[in-house]
Amino acid sequence: MKHITALTLSALLASAAVPAFAQEKGDFLLGLGLGWIEPGDGSNTAAGKVSADGAFSPTITVEYFVADKIGIELLASWPFEHDINLGGAGTVGETKHLPPTLSLQYHFTNSSAFTPFVGVGINYTYFFDEKGKGPLNGVSIDLDDSWGLALHAGADYAISEKSALRLDVRYIDIETDAKVGGVNIGKVKIDPWIFNAAYVMKF
User: Hey, what domains does the chain have and what are their CATH numbers?
Assistant: First the structure.
């Protein structure tokens, strides 16, 4: 009996040591992080296969809980900068983009320090400062803005009742019409994965 009581007491103490990071209606989460965007393989166009290099950028997320465990999140970031590659010609241009993404998310709260979540939403990608480089130096490059589906999954690890460390990944459907020297060369599928690590605070 004493052995059972000791085990029960140990279990209670262990569970009490795990910080809670439950999300309730009316809560705000603010996340400050660093993201890596990894574009897909690119697309075949009239000019050849076009692709983009990966890039790092600081990220910020704000999430408001409209119900217990259910939040609406906005992702923003410092502009990502990419080299544009053309098959057989190497780097032929560069661009910057902003990928604001609005998602509806569900958080699977439990008795451990980990809180996994999933989300789905819509992304708007704004391209700017496009310019030619290398063999296309001085030639105009234009990428149209894009709307697309965004999928999100990750987990928070509570380090206190009000803060957590987050690892998450997103898949975003980004497709843009590309022009080189004013000539439409077709659609370029970027379809990136975004890997993010962040410090999250609850208010």
Answer: 2-202 (2.40.160.20)
What does the pLDDT look like over 90-145, one tens digit per residue? 888 999 999 999 999 999 988 889 999 999 999 999 999 999 988 899 889 999 99
Decide: 28 and 64 in contact? Cβ < 8 Å. yes
Using the CB atoms, write b or e for 154-188: b if 16+ within 10 Å: bbbebeeeeebbbebebbbbbebebbbeeeebeeb
Residue segments in the chain with a per-residue pLDDT below the cut of 50: 1-4, 6-7, 9-16
- pTM of the complete model: 0.83
End-to-end CA distance of the chain: 44
Copy the structure tokens of residue 8: 């029960």
From residue 4, how far is each of 7, 9, 12, 139 by CA, in Å? 5, 9, 12, 77
φ, ψ dihedrals at 117, nearest 5°? -150, 160
**Cα distances (angstroms) measured from residue 157 to each of 17, 26, 173, 193:** 14, 21, 28, 22
Give me the pLDDT at residue 2, please: 46
Report helix, strand or coil for 124. strand
What residue type is 90 in one-letter code? G
Structure tokens at 78: 């410092």
